[in-house]
Design goal:
Structural class: alpha+beta
Radius of gyration: 23 Å
Protein name: Bacterial transcriptional activator domain-containing protein
Largest sheet: 5 strands, mixed
Pfam families: BTAD (PF03704)
Shape: flat
Number of strands: 5
CATH topology of the largest domain: Serine Threonine Protein Phosphatase 5, Tetratricopeptide repeat
CATH architecture of the largest domain: Alpha Horseshoe
Distance between the termini: 69 Å
Number of domains: 2
CATH class of the largest domain: Mainly Alpha
CATH superfamily of the largest domain: Tetratricopeptide repeat domain
Domain Bacterial transcriptional activator: 2-143
Order of helices and strands: HHHHHHHHEHEHEEHE
Strand order of the largest sheet: 1-3-4-2-5
Strand content: 5-15%
Number of helices: 11
């Protein structure tokens, strides 16, 4: 790891005068980093400070390298570097920011949207954390087709960017902020058309919560999400709200039909998980309550 550290310091010192040489040095350093230092001894107290130190160096190298590459417009390289870095550190938001920004610059709008949704859903599910203002800002760029303010929009390109892949089936999965906007849209549509829309809150309840591991609860949430995406229709919307709950919008259904959908979801879930350990608690109400 001495060479790794030395390459970092050399690159950092020459970057202002020789950015190309610094880029090469940073890349050489990244090639040396294979993950947490002495991972096999991860429970030894003496290893922790050293491991954290080298991990911080790794993070700084990725960020410094991406900044230099961005200055030269080398976005394809940023995409490759961030993909490698995210495998090692999945929750470093700055990695995802550079990755999304590079995807937008390369015109990969659909990939950027898919990655953004995956990342923010993982944040909610695993850490209970909201995306930062910077991530919300880049999300607005993704929704706008990757364009910065003031850029002229072409209608054919806009439509092409918003087309879903043919293989995409089932419900629309989104983050809570998008869900809120879609809720408001359905509320306004319902006022105009009288179309029935139901809001559903699904909560995973653990009768013996103290005996349930975080891994088990994470698997339960992931499984429920998969059931929701595959069991519901394209017009329905789902969003993971926290580590235990999903919000769902069910459109164009009667009350009895909506109740039948929830029963089917519960039955599918019980085929995968023991109901004595985890259960689905559901609450259902119309978006526009009867007067």
């Amino acid at each position: 790891m001495e060479e790794f550290e030395e390459l970092y310091h050399r690159a950092q010192s020459i970057a202002p005068q020789s950015p190309e040489e610094a880029i090469d040095l940073y890349k050489r350093a990244l090639d040396l980093y294979k993950g947490d230092y002495l991972f096999e001894d991860s429970f030894s107290e003496w290893v922790v400070p050293a491991r954290n130190y080298y991990h911080r160096l790794f993070t700084q190298i990725v960020l410094d390298l991406c900044a230099l590459l961005k200055g030269k417009g080398r976005y394809k390289e940023i995409i490759d570097i961030c993909q490698r870095a995210i495998i090692i550190e999945a929750f470093e938001e700055d990695f995802h920011f550079y990755f999304l920004e590079a995807l937008l610059e390369e015109g990969k709008i659909r990939q950027a949207m898919e990655h953004y949704q995956h990342f923010v859903n993982s944040l909610y599910r695993e850490m209970g954390v909201d995306p930062s203002p910077a991530m919300n800002k880049i999300y607005q760029r993704i929704r706008g087709g990757g364009h910065n303010k003031g850029a002229l929009l072409e209608l054919p390109r806009f439509q092409e960017e918003l087309k879903e892949k043919r293989e995409v089936e089932g419900a629309f999965l989104c983050d809570p902020e998008t869900f809120k906007n879609l809720y408001k849209l359905e509320e306004r549509r319902g006022e105009r058309t009288g179309q029935a829309v139901f809001l559903v809150l699904l909560t995973l309840v653990y009768p013996e919560k103290e005996t349930v591991s975080s891994d088990y609860s994470s698997r339960a949430m992931n499984s429920l999400q998969e059931i929701l995406v595959t069991s519901l229709r394209k017009g329905d919307v789902i969003s993971p709200w926290n580590n235990y709950q999903f919000m769902v919008l069910l459109t164009s259904l009667k009350l009895e039909e909506a109740q039948g959908v929830l029963k089917r979801i519960n039955n599918n879930f019980e085929k995968m998980f023991d109901s004595s350990k985890v259960q689905i608690q559901s609450r259902l109400q119309p978006v526009l309550p009867d007067d």
